[in-house]
Amino acid sequence: MAMLVHESAGGHGPGWDRFFARVRAVVMEHPVVTDNRYCAWFSEGRATRAQVRDLVQQFSVFSNLFIVAQLLKTINAPSLAQARESKEILVNELGVVFRSGRTTPRPTVVPTDEDEVERLGDPALVSTEGTVDGGTYHFTAAHFEWLTKVAEPLGLGFGDIGKRRHGWASTLHFCDELARIYGNEDPDIAEGASFAVEHWAAAGFWKQLIAGLDQFRDRECPELRLSFFTWHDRVEDQHAAHTLDELVEAYARPDFDEEKFLEGAREMLDGVKVFWDGLEERRQAV
Prior knowledge:
- The chain has about 290 residues and is an all-alpha fold.
- The protein is about 65% helix and about 0% strand.
- The protein has a single domain (about 15-75, about 140-285), classed as Heme oxygenase-like (Heme Oxygenase, Chain A).
- The radius of gyration is 19 Å and the shape is globular.
- The model is unreliable at about 5-10, about 100-110 and about 120-130 (pLDDT under 50).
């Protein structure tokens, strides 16, 4: 499991170490990070086709409605630099491929055979490094379109995924909390939510889902395409590193509100937990 990298106090002010210790406690000790029972179970590869369908359908609703939260985050960004960072995520979600420029900690994985292309996606469309500035738009590079390719072998068509009407109450609660907290007008609340979301995403749940989906694919669904999941797993370290940089910048602001930041982080992770708890309750009830 990835952990927050501790930034030294040098240059951050005398209260940085104390504040960062509180951030670590709120984010990395939150139950959705330390005890995500659904993802731990799913990684064992015992999910049925119906349970995989449930995951993909509910994830599709979250993925599609995340665009709303990311747009709000862009609109409410407190600086041009942060607005651009938000746009990087937003337009990449919509299908603009990263081009050379800013790079990730890990190199892009280039598939070497047809099976790997099916699993990782077309390398021309799923780049994890660079910038969207000057990038090329492709319909097929939109993240939601990758999810349609995951859904098809499971018997889920375009009309079966991605809309609010397909979301369970737990999924919609999470989506609405993303819009309310992650896209909040208050920069400190939004910063806390962004930091929490990115470090949760980098803490290992993508690998747990991929492990379970790989086993399901090998067992009974060889046509399953996993590039949506494998791409996000590869790119999350980049996002987490950016939010850590943003945290350092935010902390240096004279008007930074530490309590609001921690409130945003805590409430956002509470919302994330509701999403996974909904999937866990559903699979337990079957």
